[in-house]
Design brief:
single chain, 122 residues, alpha/beta, 2,3-Dihydroxybiphenyl 1,2-Dioxygenase, domain 1, four-stranded mixed beta sheet, three-stranded mixed beta sheet, 3 helices, 7 strands, 22% helix, oxidoreductase, dioxygenase
Length: 122
Amino acid sequence: MNTASAARFIVPVLPSLDIERDLKWYEKYAGFRRVFGDSGYAGLVRENLEFHLQFHHGNEEDPITGGSVMKIFVADIKPYFEEFVERGTIKPEKLRMNTPWGTHEFGFYDLNDNAIFFVQDA
């Protein structure tokens, strides 16, 4: 199998305590829209980006620990940064330019403590 042509894309799945609540939050604060789903599992898209949410009860048998991280790499971070400040998702001081690891980036947490970062190579 030629692995260079076999793999097409990857879709992160983030944990959620309340799919309907989180779908509304991601639409308002991150510009993603629902493309399918129910109260247990849903998919969201924005431009050519896609990720899914999966419901967890948040108890011992089905914990939600948060701490998942999604990094979205973009060609130009400025328009995204300005949009997310305008949406009230982040404060203007959240943009980190020229990090020691060679990026410009900003990030925020969703309602389940999942971290979402927008990143541009510096």
